[in-house]
Design brief:
Layout (H helix, E strand, L loop, with lengths): L2 E9 L5 H10 L13 E3 L2 E4 L2 E9 L10 H6 L11 E7 L3 H21 L5 E6 L11 H11 L3 E4 L8 H17 L18 E2 L1
Parallel strand pairs: 1-4, 1-5, 3-8, 5-6, 6-7
Antiparallel strand pairs: 2-4, 3-4
Bound molecules: guanosine-5'-diphosphate (GDP) and magnesium ion.
Guanosine-5'-diphosphate binds next to helix 1.
Protein name: RAS-like, family 10, member A
Pfam families: Ras (PF00071)
Keywords: Nucleotide-binding
């Protein structure tokens, strides 16, 4: 049976969420900023440790807060599927402190939701636009320690522009999700490049 993992990608506008997803799936990057107006679902398949997973990647448009109830989720189309995602990728721009504040807020709200639902949802925090690191607002280590040690979340920095650590971040998240939720045995996760257009990649 093929497992389906839904992953919600959340972050402030313009941090590079769509670019990360499209680089992962299509090996594609655009300098032109096209704001994501509506929620978009990508459905690639990947192979991890010899097991196939259907991913449902939700590219979540700007939301002011994590949906606090099922009815709020249903009233706001942008949030559909966000509350029950199997995992979260929270993206901030390493040059924009406000985008990190947004991630802090969303992560706090997910924790509150998680407490209520009692589930251990994997969260990966992603620092995007690593190619612009000369303009970063704080040293990598400061964020990494906070995220890993205090929040107990995964942390990866990437550049969608140069396809740097993009596949790695999905591999990290899937590794955590599989370890926590699906209890597969842990052989090393091998990576053979990003997904080809229209479908399956071996990770
Ligand atoms: P979203 O609103 O979070 O989905 O952001 P987008 O993916 O649409 O990207 C917003 C802008 O940032 C676009 O102009 C992208 O070209 C640019 N961008 C995205 N990723 C990177 C990156 O890794 N490096 C640089 N320099 N620019 C990026
Ligand atoms: Mg977008």
């Amino acid at each position: 049976m093929v497992e389906t993992l839904s992953i919600a990608v959340i972050g402030a506008p313009g941090v590079g969420k769509t670019s990360i997803i499209r680089q992962f799936i299509y090996n594609d990057f655009s300098e032109v900023y096209t704001p994501t107006q509506a929620r978009y679902v990508y459905r690639p398949s990947v192979i991890l440790n010899g097991n196939m997973y259907d991913l449902k990647i939700l590219d979540v448009p700007p939301i002011s807060s994590f949906p606090s109830s099922t009815s709020q989720e249903w009233m706001d189309l942008r949030c559909r599927g966000v509350r029950n995602a199997n995992a979260y990728i929270l993206v901030y721009d390493i040059c924009c402190v406000e985008s990190f504040e947004y991630v802090k807020m969303i992560r706090q709200q997910i924790m509150e939701h998680r407490e209520a639902s009692g589930s251990e949802v994997p969260i990966l925090v992603v620092g995007s636009k690593r190619d612009l690191q000369r303009h970063r607002f704080t040293p990598r280590r400061a964020v990494s320690v906070l995220v890993k040690k205090t929040w107990k979340c995964g942390y990866v920095e990437c550049s969608a522009k140069f396809n740097w650590h993009v596949v790695l971040l999905f591999k990290e998240l899937l590794g955590i999700a599989v370890a926590r939720g699906l209890r597969q045995n842990h052989t090393s996760i091998r990576l053979q490049g990003a997904l080809q257009r229209n479908r399956c990649s071996v990770m």
